[in-house]
């Protein structure tokens, strides 16, 4: 698959039109609410027995995988002996303990595919923005092509890409979101993109932030981000067809790409993220040691945990206010806060019932999850899926999370897996009270169900199997049929 190197900047025929940002706020907000309402309508929150019936239906699937409108993770793929040569463009490659979910997803996926015998070439930059030598570990090759600002130098990355491609063409090119810009993607014959967040969902986030935070101001600030959201959404819808195939990490995002972005159903596929099931395991003893290390008393009634960047759009103002109210009534409830950011100091001011741990090393995360009774994710960002939810579930812990379509449609699909709340303080307080009322025994039973669900859907193995079959299907139609004789 050849791709002629270009050193000049490319312009897309679908580049952003000149849009006046001085439209009336009322118009923007009205349209935003309309779109958000439609989003919620096409991605209804469903609980009860429906997910079980859906799983039975999916595992009994027989047909062309390109027609599947459910996560490929729910299927069972057999052994494959045909090897692939894949090119990958990723925003960053994880170095140290600080990387976000997209970087950790990328490393987990490509290490797993390389372990299956596929030749993987990743074009990226280190997440710490410091100089590092390229990585060559067996079938995995990671090339760091950074510009002066530490971001991916697309021209340099393409030079390396073309050199490797000339020595044997890539079977397919994969990009994590827009790591391969759409004007470059047009030049590549076979390219697939995995979307970790789309502007339709980001607009949803901006609306929540406006309703929650700006309404608290004595004099509301200008809502420039909401003004910008709609034009960026329109621009995104226009350039998405530049990518041949689209992979979504939640079922609701896949529905949006088909129903709103108007992409062909056969070009949109759902593969949920997975985490390394050998690293995130149920280990009560490690949890006990972790509690003791960080001063959690033996007679604590409930230990909650939150992890990630401690910033506003991750919902920490919500949790800070809600937990401060909870501790006034429930003195035996504790909160472990793992992560770094400006809200760390504010959590510490809540008193001895809150333990701020700072950023944890990857090896400590499983211990952290095992030390808690329930994992809380108060995020105001409904785009994509937070890996922390899956990590906690693998460790046998229920979760408490906003009721966004991406989450209730793909992760917390049943009340057996935890608790959901609307993105406001009052709803979060009520959800926290429900957790406390249920108590440790009920939480333990929910955690068992969570672990079973995670092992069936959110493992690195199942994610890698799904991606492997996807790329084989794109290379050869024969692999698009399911089941094959080799499938379990």
Automatic annotation (TrEMBL):
Residues 99-277 form the Glycosyltransferase subfamily 4-like N-terminal domain. One of its GO terms (molecular function) is glycosyltransferase activity. Residues 301-439 form the Glycosyl transferase family domain. The chain crosses the membrane at residues 21-42. Keywords: Glycosyltransferase, Membrane, Transferase, Transmembrane, Transmembrane helix. It comes from the Eukaryota. The keyword Signal does not apply. InterPro entries: Glyco_trans_1, Glyco_trans_4-like_N. PANTHER family: GLYCOSYLTRANSFERASE. This is Glycosyltransferase subfamily 4-like N-terminal domain-containing protein. The lineage of its organism: Eukaryota, Viridiplantae, Streptophyta, Embryophyta, Tracheophyta.
């Amino acid at each position: 698959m050849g791709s002629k190197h270009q050193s000049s900047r490319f312009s897309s025929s679908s580049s952003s039109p000149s849009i006046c940002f001085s439209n009336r706020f009322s118009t923007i907000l009205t349209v935003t609410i309309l779109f958000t309402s439609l989003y919620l309508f096409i991605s209804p929150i469903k609980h009860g027995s429906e997910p079980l019936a859906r799983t039975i239906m999916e595992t009994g699937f027989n047909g062309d995988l390109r027609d599947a409108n459910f996560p490929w993770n729910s299927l069972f793929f057999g052994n494959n002996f045909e090897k692939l040569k894949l090119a990958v463009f990723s925003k960053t490659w994880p170095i140290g303990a600080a990387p976000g979910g997209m970087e950790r997803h990328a490393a987990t996926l490509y290490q797993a595919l390389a372990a299956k015998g596929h030749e993987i070439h990743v074009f990226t930059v280190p997440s710490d923005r410091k100089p590092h030598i390229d990585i060559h570990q067996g079938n995995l090759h990671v090339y760091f092509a950074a510009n002066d600002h530490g971001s991916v130098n697309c021209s340099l990355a393409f030079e390396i890409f073309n050199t490797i491609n000339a020595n044997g063409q890539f079977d397919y090119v994969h990009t994590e979101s827009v790591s391969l810009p759409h004007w470059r993607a047009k030049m590549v014959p076979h390219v697939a993109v995995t979307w970790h967040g789309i502007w339709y969902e980001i607009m949803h986030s901006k609306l929540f932030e406006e309703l929650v935070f700006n309404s608290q101001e004595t004099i509301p600030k200008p809502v420039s981000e909401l003004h910008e959201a709609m034009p960026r959404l329109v621009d995104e819808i226009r350039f998405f067809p530049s990518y041949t195939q689209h992979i979504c990490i939640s079922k609701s995002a896949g529905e949006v790409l088909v129903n709103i972005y108007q992409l062909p159903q056969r070009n949109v596929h759902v593969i949920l993220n997975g985490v390394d099931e050998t690293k995130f395991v149920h280990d009560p003893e490690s949890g006990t040691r972790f509690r003791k290390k960080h001063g959690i008393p033996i007679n604590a009634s409930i230990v909650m945990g939150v992890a990630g960047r401690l910033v506003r759009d991750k919902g920490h103002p919500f949790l800070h206010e809600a937990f401060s109210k909870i501790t006034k009534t429930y003195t035996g409830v504790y909160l472990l806060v793992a992560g770094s950011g400006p809200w760390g100091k504010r959590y510490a001011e809540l008193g001895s019932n809150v333990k701020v741990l700072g950023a944890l090393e990857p090896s400590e995360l499983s211990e952290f999850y095992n030390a808690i009774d329930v994992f809380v994710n108060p995020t105001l960002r409904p785009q994509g899926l937070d890996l922390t939810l899956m990590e906690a579930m693998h460790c046998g812990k229920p979760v408490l999370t906003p009721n966004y379509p991406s989450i209730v449609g793909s992760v917390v699909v049943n009340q057996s897996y935890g608790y959901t709340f609307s993105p406001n303080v009052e709803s979060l307080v009520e959800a926290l009270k429900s957790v406390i009322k249920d108590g440790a025994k009920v939480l333990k039973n929910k955690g068992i169900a969570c672990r079973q669900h995670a092992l069936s859907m959110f493992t690195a193995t199942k994610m890698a199997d799904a991606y492997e079959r996807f790329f084989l299907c794109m290379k050869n139609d024969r692999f698009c049929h399911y089941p094959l004789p080799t499938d379990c």
